[in-house]
Amino acid sequence: MKWLLMAHLTACAAFVAVGDDEKCPVSANVRGHENIEWSISYAYGLTDSTRGLPRVLLVGDSICNGYQTGVRERLKGKMNVTYWVSSYCVTSPAYLPLLSIYLDEAKYDVIHFNNGLHSLETPAAAYEKGMRRALAFIREKQPDAKIVWCSSTPLTNDVKTAKCRELNAVAAKVVAELGGIATNDLFALCDPLDRAANWGDEFHFRPEAKAKQAEQVTASVLSARDANVPCVGICANAAESNGYRIVARDSWYGFNRKVFEFHGCEAWIVEPKTMADGRPWAWIMEWPGAFAKRNGSVALLKAGYHVVTLRPGHYKNGKFVSRPGNMNNKRLRESREFQKYLVDELHFAPKANLIGMSWGGFYSVRYAGTYPDAISCIYLDAPLLDFSTAANKESWGLNKKYGVDVKTYVGKDDPRQPVNMYGPIAKAGIPILLLYGGADATVPPSENCLRFAEAFKAAGGDIKIVARGHYGHHPHGLELDEQLRFVDFFNGKNAR
């Protein structure tokens, strides 16, 4: 089906009372008309055998018109495409009525939205108001769609590129304030490219650059499509369909939690209200119920991460009996199978982000050192990395409670001790965030985390160390107003 909307469709502005701020994002003609206003759209797969596929709406201008063919080719068999490209600025009184035509035409799983290059003469304040109203309008019309905002691309003209960059910053601010909207930064993709080799004119791109744009747009659309599936349905249905008994569904710090039996162990999956792109997840390796507000777990859930744990043990008469271990070979295999289940069946991100507090640090480093290709990053907090150094280890019940036979390891230099497993982790480029208390008498830092950190750095490892001089072994984590440090670290940014 094809729509071709020419300049006479500016009559759609009659839908909106010009100057009426309740209906029009800004007063009329802030930018003024271009000499020729234009609008083109196509919708594919409305009636043929592919009509049941998920659908994406691409909204943009002539840059979008340049990459939409490549996007359609890459999405063939995965998603159907509708696109609407035009010269209208979000400040135009015709913009929302025209956009409404396509929002009313079908139900979209993803809406990839851009408006900017035809707004270069628009004041930033007016553009901000127009963007805010347009995005709110899309949400109102398509409440179940995942929205991806796409930044506008640079030009060969430096002055206009500077204005484009300014409007992108305005739009990014709106997107951040509205929340729940993904970003596809085409400006960042294109700006480093050689202008002479990749631009055909002041605005438009040559085929090779269009292909790069199509590749990134496709990736952002597919990521949004996957993130748009309701969390509860994913987790609950996958577990039940694979024969894993659901033990409980409840709330954990205001987020839905599912507890289920996994090969005799107790597994948790805590679901964010809105999944982040790529479906990232954090794995609490031990003590999942401890210090959750301080150790980044709740902050990561708010940022769109799933939070999971796997507790070894068995069920007896319907009750779970914990069987902590020392991450021996059996426990390593159990943990690896759990990760494969999350990735293969629930489509979580391929690599885990580990949270290792105290004994959980022992688990984390043993697991990461054995399967470095499966790990994205590690947060260690007062980690026990050489159990032979732990104070009062007999009172910990290491032999009985944790199944540790002191004869299993031969002193602090045994290569199986986590303190000595820094090599594979450093070689894999896995970053570590380390917190420890300078007054920790339970797990002495000098013989555990600091010894590990020194060797890890010497092996080329990337580690950020936060020393808390007056703290002992507890409490783990950071103060509540510092939780974004965890989110930044897990997102690959510099911890604040």
How would you concisely characterize the structure shown here?
The chain has 496 residues and is α/β, with parallel strands linked by helices. It has 15 helices and 18 strands.
Task: Outline the fold blueprint.
Blueprint: E1 2-5, E2 39-43, E3 55-60, H1 62-75, E4 80-86, H2 95-105, E5 110-113, H3 124-141, E6 146-150, H4 158-178, E7 182-184, H5 186-190, H6 195-198, H7 207-227, H8 231-241, E8 246-252, E9 255-262, E10 265-270, E11 281-284, H9 297-302, E12 306-311, E13 313-316, E14 319-322, H10 329-344, E15 352-357, H11 359-370, E16 375-381, H12 393-396, H13 422-427, E17 432-437, H14 449-458, E18 463-468, H15 484-490
Parallel strand pairs: 3-4, 3-5, 5-6, 6-7, 11-12, 11-15, 15-16, 16-17, 17-18
Antiparallel strand pairs: 1-2, 2-4, 8-9, 9-10, 10-12, 13-14
Helix pairs in contact: 1-7, 2-3, 3-4
Question: How does this model look, in words?
Answer:
By secondary structure, the protein is of the alpha/beta class. The protein has two domains: 2-227, SGNH hydrolase (Rossmann fold, 3-Layer(aba) Sandwich); 231-490, Rossmann fold (3-Layer(aba) Sandwich). The chain is built from 15 helices and 18 strands. A nine-stranded mixed β-sheet has the order 8-9-10-12-11-15-16-17-18, with helices on both faces. Strands 1-2-4-3-5-6-7 form a seven-stranded mixed β-sheet, sandwiched between helices. A two-stranded antiparallel ribbon has the order 13-14. Helix 1 packs across helix 7, helix 2 (95-105) packs parallel to helix 3 (124-141) and helix 3 crosses helix 4 (158-178). The protein starts with a strand and ends in a 6-residue tail after the last helix.
